[in-house]
Amino acid sequence: MREPLVEDQLALLHTAPVEGFGIIFAIRTARAWWYSAWLRTLARFSRTYFGSFWLGLSNLLSVALLGTVYGAVFNIANPWEYVVYLGLGYTIWGFISLTVISASTLFSMRRDQLINNSLPAIFYCLEEWAFQVQTFAQSMVIIMIPILFIKPVLWLHALTSMWLPILNLGLFCFWVTALMAVLGSRFKDVAQLMPILMQLTFLLSPILYRKEGLGKMALIADLNPFYRLLAPVRNALIDGDVYVRTELITLVMNALLIWIVCHWLKRVRYSMPFWV
């Protein structure tokens, strides 16, 4: 029996299923999980006239309403500046909150696929993360359009200053997705706890108000990990300020936590079908 040609062996490698749990797997399957997430968005708004535009529109209306009400409650001297501050903070918080809450039920919702398919569990984490990133991007673009007329310099900051903070925010949301997916599948109470926790954290975070308004209680914001990722993105957009050293340290920590969570996900992959 003759040996397969080199060309045939290479073709077989290219058509073989991709296996793994690390960055190589994520890169090799990027088109699959990114496109799968996009199909979820299309299916979500199928047979609607505005399609995914509803994502940004609902966010824009919420910001307009909250800005009007709380601008009057707090007696804001410059309401337009407050709308910019609130709009960016509220949009970024929505990305973080939806990521945490949806991830806590991720593997429970994908129970049949986990049991019947041979895809590694990290694929579903990547797909969920991509879906939230796409949702956030659409909401951010819609909210930035009116902000362009209020404070045009934000677009310059978006092009020059926000790359490191937004990268750290995205990496943070990925490892949180994987972490919450495992915890949510192992402990069912997590799915009930996280919406409550995120709502309380939202009220304690300087999003509707400025951090200076907390006075001696500003330590609450400093110890809030979600706000610590939100604030650099918002500050980079509004003021163009980026603390490169801090962002690089955060980047290294995010990379380390991604490695730890992915390694943990690999270790529990055989136990997960019994948990869900």
Write a compact overview of the structure shown.
This protein has 276 residues and is mostly helical.
- Total beta strands: 0
Order of helices and strands: HHHHHHHHHHHHHHH
Largest sheet: none
Could you say which overall geometry the principal axes of the C-alpha atoms support? globular
Termini distance?
47 Å
Helix content: over 70%
What number is the mean pLDDT? 83
Unreliable segments (pLDDT under 50, ≥5 consecutive)? 1-18
Number of helices: 15
Could you tell me the radius of gyration in angstroms?
21 Å
Return the structural class: mainly alpha
SS strand fraction: under 5%
Task: Give the key terms.
globular; disordered N terminus; 276 residues; mainly alpha; 15 helices; single chain; 76% helix
